[in-house]
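QUALITY CONTROL LOG
STEP: pairwise intake check
CHECKER ROLE: data steward
CRITERIA: each record must contain a sequence immediately followed by its structure tokens, with no blank fields

ENTRY 1 OF 2
RESULT FIELD BELOW
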Amino acid sequence: MAKKTVVIVPMPGTYMLDIAGPCDVFAAADQILREGLGTEGAGSGYNILLAAYGDEKTVPTRSGITMICPLTVDEITEPIDTFIVAGFPMALIQAGDRRLINWLKKNYPRLRRVGSICVGTYALAEAGILDGKNATTHWEHSRSFQEKYPSICVDTNPFYTKDGNVYTSGGVSSGVDLAMALVEEDYGREVAIQVARKLVLYLKRPGYQSQFANLLQLHSVANSLAGKLRPWILEHLDKEMGVEELATHLNMSIRNFTRVFTRETGMTPAKFVEKLRVEIARKYLEDSDYSMEQIATRCGLGGVVSMRRVFLRHMNVTPSDYRRTFRTSFAD
């Protein structure tokens, strides 16, 4: 069985983990297959190529390390099994640089698989590869991505998605999750498990991107009614507060307050308050020793059962599981 050629295109300004993470997964799988450890696929594996998208083979990363690619995508002569775009600065499109987009449009039909890591999803979208498909990207870009590409069904909950032969992954470390899934797809569960053990990774990481996401992008509401209300809401977080009370605090009618608030934030006042309660509860779970009952009371989330229900709705995880995952480092 011949090795599968995996081409990873590191884009300028990308985090090193976007690139190095998947490379290490494929490299570990290649070593395991080469050594023939408990698999019938001994002798197969991966040929990993880093290819620059344009003429310049040096690619600066956001981590301060410059990648040197041995060749460009136009110089690849061997058959490509899997083509992955790691990151993608939209400034290239704004500057009229569509070299990678044009390459993808021309060569996509000849690729067995194509994928993206983090905002590399934008490159696939620009090339039309994701039209009518399901995709994910970094959770920070969920709303803007959906607005820019309405024909794509974007869901930033999962760490990665598959639709046909197109694979997309979420923020940064999700590229590792995607690479693990591709190894399992290619060579089976046993090989993937050995890779996970070797690199001390999950075979399939539990949870969703939503556990890492900020429910409220406060910079976007700073000058809105929500921004004006936030300090007052935080002072009264342990109390019930309805739309009427919020409107009265701003000396506005309920109807006008609700209309303006929803237009500015894209959510109802009640939903904003609920998300703010969850955000503060998250901080208590991360940094404090308060019990679940105390946190639920302090954040106005009712009892433990009610807080659990709200957490599952917004975070796809229970408060206790969230605390175990995100508790302050080196805490007892």
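ENTRY 2 OF 2
RESULT FIELD BELOW
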Amino acid sequence: MTASTNPKKRLASLDAFRGFTIAAMIIVNTPGSWKHVFPPLLHSHWNGITPTDLIFPFFLFIVGVSIVLAYSKKIVSQPRPILLKHLFKRAALLFIIGVILNLIGSEFTAIRLPGVLQRISITFLVGALLFIYTKRRTQFYIAGSLLLIYWALMKLVPVPEFGAGVLEPGKNLANYIDHLLIPFKMYEGSWDPEGILSTIPAIASTITGMFTGYIILSKESDMQKLVLIFVSGFLMLISGVVLGWFFPINKNLWTSSYVLYTSGLANLGLATIYYFMDVKAYLQWGKTGVIFGTNAITAYIIHYLLMMPLSQINIGSASIQAHFMNLFANMHVMPEIASLTWALLYTSLCFIPVWLLYQKKIFLKI
């Protein structure tokens, strides 16, 4: 990582959107007890969508927006070899950090190659290369082609023993390819939600963010930009719903309908924050998001590092987390409320170091 103490003027709404998303991710990742979680804070078991299922695609959308905002000047000012070296180095570091974080609390033999940061690294690299070497219209066609090709593969290519078009857990083409090609541990045993084939439409999620980045950098007025982002978001949202009738919205498979639906909501969410923070300059209400968002990777790493001392190392007969849940149980508090309270406190604890970094104007970047 490198530390910056004087970053260029940033888009406040994008930082806030990233920060609120990372905070939401920490909350849903760290309940006091997985046995007692409010349903909206859990992933959908299979088809369908919950608020928790929006978090990861929002990250990939934000990556796409950031690519356009960050590299528009760099492709003009920096020699291509230096720029490419930076891209590949950043992607490799993200991937390696993701693999290392997967090992926390596990034995080395339980290494898991796929993961959240790993998928972000791949989609970032592909999106950035497309931004450098292709035009906007080409990127649009590529995104559409990725969604169409993925749909065709999942619906038309037969899987041994199960045939073509089967989208059930462990019986579909994406899971079959994971089983064949991914070594070591997989999240679901024989397949992984961040697997190989489902990364294809995930790249399209990042490209949709790039389109929004182009709108933000355009010479249109702020209100025209807002209208364009809202309209494109609404159209993608409706397209995702309609496509979902034929290719169900599914986070585990990262279906094409899921890409359109979540990218549509991401556009609507970013546009709303953009209006209040960058157009109306109501900055204070989104300050917490900005603080999290300017050191998002740091917050993500911290939330992983805190898990072991708080939830796996015993003090007396139980861990700090277990003592907390027992305390609330003795007070006859609803266990789901206790579990959510722990998650909120955990997120607040993660906020402290990134707040200190923000106060010192230190922004850690890969």
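INTAKE CHECK: passed for both entries
DESCRIPTIVE NOTE, ENTRY 2: Residues 3-8 have pLDDT under 50 and may be disordered.
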